[in-house]
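ok trying this again, last paste got cut off
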Amino acid sequence: MITLTEKQAFQTMVLFLEEFYQRTNSDEIGGLLSDLLMSEEGITADPAAWEDWQNCIQQIIKTEKLTSATATTNAA
């Protein structure tokens, strides 16, 4: 399994969206990408985008912990 930092995972998502945008020219995706642009200081053009990203990471971690705990309980 590959382990990524929060920033690497974010950059991976942005790359995925950029490639999708190249194929579709979706205005919505283009707008989202504008918000996700990261400055040299590591701040997104829309600072709330980074907060949203971190909140999503926490949701996934929480879900994985619950799923893991349920699987362990069911196995016992």
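PB: full thing came through this time. Helices lie at 6-24, 27-36, 47-75.
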